[in-house]
Amino acid sequence: MNASVLQLADTATMGHAQIPFLGRTNIWVEDTIADRQSIELTQSLIGQAVAGTWPGQVEIVVFDDALSGLAAPFAGLNGGGELLLKPLLDHGELRDALTYLRSHIQGVNSVMRGRYASLLDFRREINYPVEGYKLAVLSTDISTLSEDMLNQLSILLKAGPRAGVTFLIHSMTLGANPFLVGMCDLLNVKSSRVLRNGRPLTETWSPLGAQFHIETSERVATSLATAQMEPVEFMALEGIGETWTESSQNGISFPVGKYGLETVQVTLGDELNQRHNVLITGAVGQGKSNLLSVIIHGICQRYSPDEIELYLLDFKEGVTLQQFAPHLPSGAYLPHAKVLGLEADREFGLSVLRYLHSVYKGRMRTFKEQGVQNIREYRIQSGHRMPRILLVVDEFQMLFSDRDRLSDEIADLLIRGARLFRACGIHIVLASQTIGGNMALMGGSGDGLFGQVPIRVALKNSLAESQATLGTRNEAAAHLRAREAIVNLDYGAVSANRKTGIAFADDRVLAVLRQRWWERANGSHAAPAVFNGEVRRSLDDDASNLDQTGPQLPTAALGRRIEVESRLYLLTLEREVGRNVVVVGAGEGTELLASIAGSIAITAGGHVRFILIDPARPPRAGVIELVEFLDATGARVELIDSDALQETLEALRGTLEAQDRFPDPVIVVGFGLDRIRDMPRDFEEICRLGPPLGLHVVGWWNKLDSFKGHVGYAGDSFFDVKVALRGEAQVVKQIMGDPLLEWRPTENRALVLDSSSSEGPIRIIPYTRLVRSLSLKEQK
Questions:
Q1: Domain check: are 275 and 366 in the same one?
Q2: What contacts 654, CB < 8 A, 6 or more positions away?
Q3: Contact, 724 vs 751, CB < 8 A?
Q4: Helix (H) or strand (E) holding 504
Q5: 383 with 425, same domain?
Q6: Can you state the angle between helices 288-302 and 507-521, rounded to 10 degrees?
Q7: What Å distances lie between residue 359 and 34, 354, 388, 759, CA to CA?
Q8: 373 and 487 share a domain?
Q9: How do residues 643-682 score in pLDDT, each as one tens digit?
């Protein structure tokens, strides 16, 4: 530990003399009223506290009821990103500050546990800056304070210094309670001499001056912005050294940091104390991602993948979870992880909650069959290692970014899950920068989500967010520093606060552990299902999952469903009325239609004929590439433009009216058909008559009105499959035939409705990259 971090102005210099100061005693500077010397002496003491300590190690609270301006030169202290100087504006704020200091002193005493005479001795013994020092500056007529505050002040004056809370009072002694004055070193300034308890301390004394205080404050603020605290090392946490030695039968425990000399641990699944879920909050840059990484790595170090399964969702950038996904060159991944939601969206979050509810129901059926009530009893009776499940949701507030039916269902599943999942060993960790904006969800009642989360971990945040997390009377998180947290295991009760130094998730250490876990698992646990809503997909990614035995019914792949299983969205084009596909909306329609055609060609084994209509001149590059690919599969391909459209459609209609069945399926694929102003009337008849005889239309229009104009009155009824890309919400509602549909046009998303199924509209990540390098194409 850098010794300067422990540096503290525990003495103050007056000329050639020194007196006890921070962490050792209180000081009362008598207000002389007649001149400013007493104010300058008080400012000199504040200045020494600022200059003589490591940046950020002392916080100053100032109540200047006399309007002396003694704190003005120190305003620059708050320029380093932390509130080191906090002015109190009225007696109400002073009362709140005294209450906070009382709880802070109790917390420091709990850390020291009676083993040390003072915080100063404790920090020097363990060689680490545990807790912080407080300097409470009161410039007021003490005799005017209420009896309640005077009683509170008398307690704090006595107990404060040994817990690192020092009072610097600037007030007249006339009329003041002698008992209060007696608990302080009394300083006077007379004729440029400082007297201590009535005895001369200096021959002469000169104030440091406002400019010195201004420059010191600005220098400390600058240093604070770049100062580095030596972190709590992850591997130094108690019980973290051994790998996969713990059983989750009775719960899962993980360390988060240090509380004095002790490692702070959190236990989920404790049937005695009924602690099953965790809430984490913290302002930007205060270490929330670091804390989540510490939690995940702590669990994975102690428990094998047979003991714990992780479902990890990030509704922000996904950077925190990226390290757990399969990565090259080794292909290593976190064997404990079942699902990784990188840059997840609300639909995927909903699918995970639905999936976990199905797991819950399945486990409860198993317990009922075994005659047990919970996972602990099941494991004891059966001897089977049923793993516990931990759902971690970072920035969970994004699930409720819109108040709609989707968010209502998510809220319902989340609240019911928090209440019910405990029996079957499913636990939830919710993390967010802010929760104050959704108090209806978090609510104070036992039926709300908040009432199901006894464990609260609050990193540094605003006063309002501290109270939203910990409770209306608990503002402890507002007084923290970066990488400190209040760990509270009792629904935010002030008495349960434990100020904890959070361990540092050093990836140079953790990467070694992850590689070790992956090697030890030795492929016995599959790679996690990874959802990244920003990554664009291609049919190339999924070609190996298509049935290539052909020939068979034309089977089109449109993309991946937004769900835990991430199933392919496949549709078959049976020879039935209405088996056509319409794609409407702006976006990558060319790429999607090329993927539909490509997947049909693969599954048909070449036994298919394609008629590609591209009104663009010259044809789109993607259409030219599709022709080459389809030809390589053995399919028959014709590419026509607007000039050849009439003749081609007439020939197809003639075959249909003759009631001739096409021996091989015929797929008419139209790209950007809005460009065709006068669609031949034969097109309507092909859409109506074609599917039962083996001819299917797959068309893309940018505008719904263009589509309806081309297919005629009620012609859209001959398109069972409707796909919506980006477009106005009202238009999508018309396409899907649901005026209450909630759909927000989004990049890299599509909505699919197949009226022949009972699923309703399905959200998917569509194929929006062209087919380029399928192995099948290369083989041909």
A1: yes
A2: none
A3: yes
A4: strand 498-504
A5: yes
A6: 30
A7: 77, 9, 11, 21
A8: yes
A9: 999 999 999 999 898 877 888 999 999 999 999 989 999 9
**pLDDT per residue as tens digits for the range 279-320:** 999 998 889 999 999 999 999 999 999 999 999 999 887 677
Residue type at 189 in one-letter notation = V
- Residue with the bigger pLDDT between 778 and 756: it is 756
Rounded-to-integer distance, Cα 686 and Cα 682, Å: 6
DSSP, collapsed to helix, strand or coil, labels residue 618 as coil
DSSP letter, residue 573: -
* Predicted TM-score (pTM) of this structure: 0.82
- Asked if residue 304 and residue 186 are part of one domain, the reply reads no
Report how many domains make up the chain.
3
* Whether residue 212 sits in one domain with residue 348: no
Which of these three, 208, 226, 244, is where a domain ends? Answer: 226
Residues 591-649 have pLDDT tens digits of 999 999 999 999 988 899 999 999 998 999 999 999 999 999 899 999 999 999 999 99
Short-list 216, 219, 106, 91, CA closest to 163: 106
Ordered DSSP codes for 99-117: HHHHHHHHHHHHHHTTSSS
Domain that holds residue 69: 3-226
Average pLDDT over residues 686-695: 95
Closest CA to 28 of 159, 172, 163, 165: 172
Q: 127: Cβ–Cβ under 8 A, 6 or more apart, which residues?
A: 1, 6
Q: Are residues 69 and 202 in the same domain?
A: yes
**Is there a single domain that holds both residue 488 and residue 598?**
no
Between the CA of residue 38 and those of 41, 153, 217, what are the distances in Å?
5, 22, 21
Note whether 419 and 277 are same-domain residues.
yes
Q: Which two tokens stand for residue 6?
A: 């422990």
Token pair 């020494």: residue: 48
Angle of the 405-420 helix axis to the 346-370 helix axis, nearest 10:
30
